[in-house]
Amino acid sequence: MKDHQELRDQIPALALGILEPDQTGSLQQHLAGCPTCQREFDAMLDIVGHLGYGAPDAQPPAGMRERIIRKVQPENHAGGLPKIGFWRRLTGWKPAFSFISLGLIVVLLVSNLLMWNQMRPATGEDFSTIRLFGTGAMHQASGLIVISPDGQYGTLVVSDLAPLPADQQYQLWLVRGDQRATGAVFTVAESGYGTIKVYSHDPLVSYDTFGITIEPFGGSPGPTGEKVLGSK
C-alpha cells in the first residue's frame, strides 16, 4: 500500500489529468480521507487554471490565418477566404504555438511551495510569477519564480541549465537597488532541470529583480561568477 508522501507526490499529475488510470483510484480515495492533501489538490487546480498567464505573448506570423483556413478547407478558397463555422474552426484548428514546457514543470512541482506549513490558501488572490531569461552561453535556459499570494514565499523552477562540475553550484540573487541577497544555492539534474524553494528574510515582492550566477559549491557572499539567468 502506498504511503502518504507517495500519494501526495501524485497530486500535481492528477490536477493536470495525466495520472495513470490505475493510480487515480487510490489517490482519490486518499484525498477523501485526508483534508491536507485535498486542500493541496484544490490549490493545484487553481494553479492549473492560471497556467496560461505564465506563458509569453506571441504574435502569429503574417498569413497564418489564411494558411490555417486553407488547411481546414483546402477546396473552395480560390475566390477568397471561406467562411467556416465556429465548431469546424475549433475542431479543425491545430495550435501553431504551444506553451513553453516550463509552464507545465511549474504546475508539476509547485507543490513544493504548497507543502510549506506557512503557505496559506489563496483567498481571491492569484499566485505571482517572475520569468527569468537565459543569458550568454546559456541563452536557451529559462526559469520561473512562483510567489505565494501574500508575497512571502516562492519556488524557483529552471530548465535547460547546463549541469555544473562538482565544485560549482548555481546561486539565486534577490536584488534591491545595489543590494543583493541570496535566495537559493542549487544544482540541476543532467536534463538541466531543477526546482528549489526560495528563502528570504523580506517578502519576495519587495525585490526589484532576480538573477542566477555560477558560484563555488556552497554559494558566495556576493555574485562572483557568470550570470546565466535574469529577470527583466
Describe the structure concisely for a colleague:
This protein has eight helices and eight strands; from the N terminus they run ααααααααββββββββ.
Question: Can you tell me about this structure?
Answer:
The protein is built from eight helices and eight strands. The chain has an eight-stranded antiparallel sheet, covered by helices on one side. 29% of the residues lie in helices and 23% in strands. The protein has helices at 4-8, 11-16, 21-33, 35-49, 64-72, 86-92, 101-109, 111-114, and strands at residues 128-134, 142-147, 154-159, 168-176, 179-186, 194-198, 209-216, 227-230. It has three domains: 1-49; 60-92, no CATH class; 101-230, no CATH class. Strand 2 (142-147) and strand 3 form a beta hairpin. By secondary structure, the protein is of the alpha+beta class. Helix 3 (21-33) packs across helix 4 (35-49). Residues 86-101 and 115-124 have low confidence and may be disordered.
Number of domains: 3
Which shape, going by the Cα principal axes? globular
Class by SSE composition: alpha+beta
Output mean pLDDT: 76
How far the N terminus sits from the C terminus, by CA atoms, comes to 47 Å
Compressed to H and E, one letter per element, the order equals HHHHHHHHEEEEEEEE
Instruction: Tally the beta strands.
Output: 8
Helix count from the secondary structure assignment: 8
Helix content: 25-40%
Which stretches are poorly predicted, pLDDT < 50 over at least 5 residues? 86-101, 115-124
- Largest beta-sheet details: 8 strands, antiparallel
The radius of gyration over CA amounts to: 21 Å
Which sequence of strands runs across the widest sheet? Answer: 5-4-7-8-1-2-3-6
Please report which band the strand proportion falls in: under 5%, 5-15%, 15-25%, 25-35%, 35-45% or over 45%. Answer: 15-25%
